[in-house]
């Protein structure tokens, strides 16, 4: 993202000061670590979310100050909205800015695009606004909190409070946790569309309210051996033998061997068929395509 912004700045011939001014920054007044025992403000409001249908997109960010050399906006800057007093906008109103997004790359595991479509439309949280001046057809708002850069055309939605779920009591991670018997899905994508993620990252799973998932639930990530069509590349029969590195006396299948518990996370928000999960602990990289079960 920063590379794209830097390239854009060079393209329009702006100076280094202009480029640095456009880099997004989190709200300095927002709690960095959250209240004691709770997920932080930034993690809650920058998690992104899934929707079964498109959110209303009639309200948009259409421009901003210093637009002659500025293409993106972040905390502390002022932007223009396409709605004013004619739509009931008032000074002091708060809004959230979001953008529909999708993975631009090829599939990380077989069937990923199909599952991505099934869990709903992914919206990226960009930040928050507060209206400081209202005109009949437009309004001016200040960016009070940034998750990522904002640009013309981004969707503006009324601000909605989100719960900050409490962390469970700290304890030793159970690397050998038995199967919970609750719904099982998989990690379909991550907030950065990377192949693997770890502690502190937000990911999306194909378990949602329809499967009984709710905010604050814990999810356990795990992996079985032998599934060659997904996540980390695996050599055929590597769980039994690998040339030059020994072999077992019996040909085992992945289902015959213990599962590897990789980590766990807490549900930040849930739609009908998908959820955003903050990974709170990981003992190894967690790949898209790895399994996820409700604890």
Give a quick precis of the structure.
Among the domains are: 52-161; 184-224 and 259-294, Elongation Factor Tu (Ef-tu), domain 3, CATH 2.40.30. Helix content is 10%, strand content 32%. It is built from four helices and 17 strands.
Helix/strand/pairing category: mainly beta
Number of β-strand runs: 17
Largest sheet: 7 strands, antiparallel
What best-fitting shape do the alpha-carbon axes yield? elongated
Number of helices: 4
Please compute the radius of gyration using only Cα atoms: 22 Å
Strand content: 25-35%
Portion in helices:
10-25%
Quaternary organisation: single chain
Instruction: List the secondary-structure elements in sequence, H or E.
Output: HHHEEEEEHEEEEEEEEEEEE
List low-confidence stretches.
1-33
Whole-number average pLDDT?
A: 84
Q: How far apart are the termini?
A: 35 Å
Describe the model.
There is one protein chain. The protein is mostly beta strands and 295 residues long. Among the domains are: 110 residues; 77 residues, Beta Barrel (Elongation Factor Tu (Ef-tu), domain 3), CATH 2.40.30. It is built from four helices and 17 strands. The strands form four sheets. Strands 1, 2, 4, 5, 6, 7 and 9 form a seven-stranded antiparallel sheet that branches. The chain has a six-stranded antiparallel beta barrel with strand order 10-12-15-14-13-17. Strands 3-8 form a two-stranded antiparallel ribbon. A hairpin with a 4-residue loop joins strand 6 and strand 7. The N terminus is likely disordered.
